[in-house]
Amino acid sequence: MDAVTLRADIHQQIEQIGHADIVVGIPSFNSAHTIAHVVRAVQAGLAKYFPEHKAVIINSDGGSVDGTMDVVHQTSIGDFETILLHHRIEPVLKLAFPYTGIPGKGSAFRAVFEVAQALDAKACVVVDSDLRSITPEWIELLLKPVLNGGFDYVAPLYHRHKFDGTITNSIVYPLTRALYGKRVRQPIGGDFGFSGKLAQFYLTKDVWETDVARFGIDIWMTTTALANGFRVAQSFLGAKIHDAKDPGTDLGNMLYQVVSATFQLMEDYDAKWLTVSGSQPVPTFGFEYTVGLEHVNVNSARMIALFREGVQNLREIWLGILGAGDLREVERLAALDDASFRFPLALWTRIIYDYALAFHRGQLSAGHLLKSLLPLYVGKTASFVMEVTPLEVHEAEAEIEKLCLEFESGKDYLCSQWK
């Protein structure tokens, strides 16, 4: 596939650079107040851990109007002595440019993949531009398994507050794990390491004019690596603390974006996942330590009320997707008082599989289908919050593990109905 997204002047700069061992991509959009910290952490990581490798930092920008790219050009570490055990041999080069194509993170990543291919890079990293918790060690942990361990894809492993990341915890992680048989804990983490070989493979895929380019890129990268037999690992990075997302991009949008991309990938790779049973851990790098986490406030009473509203308004739609038996279970749940409200794991598993099947059969438009999932998801989340409130983080994680095992044991139902 021809590189069509890079401007002529960027090609010129790439020709001048010639070759690089490492490419670090930082996609951005109006990130002027956070990106300097990210660039400094990346530079420090490269200087400290990869002094003999030629490295290029790419800021692939989505048309920021707040001077993000200027900040990238101006940011450098003045005093290398303070973070270095030895002098850096190769300079770190920086490119900052607006990408072209559909607005979205996927288009930003495509530009990074193209630069990596043009420079024949051995290893690449992409990190979010709004990270407040990134350290130089992240660069080591995301690159070393690729450069020294022969891995093609390194997913991040973070400690997050037990109420944070509920779409990952209740849908994307259990589903991806059951489908592809690998326990990648953060399949939509946003910060990844990958080999030059995998970057080139990504470029051969015809997804750049689709919703993947807008918002499904993280799950697409993880699933593509898993389903095509690339060597996958994960690295423990500590806490992930980043800018709070705009409340205008509401939960319903995020649910639609992530779950529709995950379901679409099930269509693309059903030949792979239909034959998989059970799951295996993936190799994990880094030293796991406990971290202080920012508290996440959740109003579970309001969530249960939204769930009950859904039971009243969506009965006919749910009947068509879930069938009469599971709809009865959902209605029974709605009749419980708040204190005893608990969502059975087996019921939730069947609901997600039934929604995947409805997507597969085209029962409703994807937008309508996933909008009707929202009250069910909100109910499940409220139940989880109430269950894990008194628990320690590791105990909450054990509850997620139970859900994953339920997804694995219930997979036969999905497979039998899929065909």
Question: Explain this structure to me?
Answer:
This protein has helices at residues 8-17, 35-49, 68-74, 105-118, 136-147, 166-180, 196-203, 211-227, 251-268, 270-273, 300-313, 315-335, 345-361, 366-388, 393-409, 411-418; strands at residues 22-28, 55-61, 92-98, 123-126, 153-159, 182-183, 192-195, 232-239, 280-281, 284-285. It has 419 residues and is α/β, with parallel strands linked by helices. It folds into two domains: 8-285, Spore Coat Polysaccharide Biosynthesis Protein SpsA, Chain A (Alpha-Beta Complex); 300-388. The strands form two sheets. The protein has an eight-stranded mixed β-sheet, sandwiched between helices. It has a two-stranded parallel sheet with strand order 6-9. The chain is globular, with a radius of gyration of 22 Å.
